[in-house]
Amino acid sequence: MAILGNKRPLKKPIGIYGGTFDPIHYGHLRPNLELCEILELDHVRFIPAFLPPHKDEPQTSVAQRLEMVAQAISEEKYFVLDDREIKRGGASYTVDTLKSLRQDYPDQPLCLLMGMDAFAGIDRWYQWEELLHYAHIIVSQRPETDFDDQKQWPEAIQNFYLTHKADRNAIQQSLCGHIRLEPVTQLSISATDIRNRLKNKQSIRFLMPESIISLIKYYNLYR
């Protein structure tokens, strides 16, 4: 049953950030740290997908991706690894994950964190219009997108945003149901580019934590 966002919660919001993380990099880490500060989140849960419905199958194993995420966030007290999609198995549908999180955190706002590119294609997600029944959606700026030009979005997504857009106070004071755009530091880094650089024997220094580079070398990944 959906949770209605009509009561002022007593606890800080929780950030929810899913992805393949194949591999994790600073483009995943820095924006979410900024959103944690801007929105005064209790913490951000990094949730690796078991099988992403809208992307190719990961090139690395579940265990390797979990290890990379765990290592990357280990020194940030506001970042938490959540393996519920791995344990659930099958296609990793976000709406199912939010339902599970809502059961675990019935009195805290949930903030689904995503980039502008993901939001622009959210109408292709499974049961996408139900996401706001369980969480807010926070959309962060990506370098390759125009943050202010919402006319580039499909009409259904424009209407979705205009119907549910809200200020920061609304995010803090309700459990779910709102959409907010938030600018963050622009980092034009992608996992695809990193994998291609590795295949071409190019350096990936300063694109991700050194500890992740060490794991990639140890497991001889993306060759």
Task: Lay out the secondary structure.
Elements: E1 14-19, H1 26-38, E2 43-48, H2 62-73, E3 79-81, H3 84-88, H4 94-104, E4 110-115, H5 116-120, E5 136-140, H6 155-164, H7 168-173, E6 179-182, H8 191-199, H9 210-219
Quick synopsis:
The chain has 223 residues and is an alpha/beta fold. The protein has helices at 26-38, 62-73, 84-88, 94-104, 116-120, 155-164, 168-173, 191-199, 210-219; strands at residues 14-19, 43-48, 79-81, 110-115, 136-140, 179-182. It has a single domain, classed as HUPs (Rossmann fold), CATH 3.40.50.620.
Structure in words:
With 223 residues, the protein is α/β, with parallel strands linked by helices. It has a single domain (14-189), classed as Rossmann fold. It is built from 9 helices and 6 strands, in the order E-H-E-H-E-H-H-E-H-E-H-H-E-H-H. It has helices spanning 26-38, 62-73, 84-88, 94-104, 116-120, 155-164, 168-173, 191-199, 210-219, and strands at 14-19, 43-48, 79-81, 110-115, 136-140, 179-182. The protein has a 6-stranded parallel beta sheet, sandwiched between helices. Helix 5 links the parallel strand 4 (110-115) and strand 5 (136-140). Helix 2 (62-73) packs antiparallel against helix 9. The longest helix is centred in the N-terminal third of the chain and has 13 residues, at 26-38. Residues 1-6 have low confidence and may be disordered.
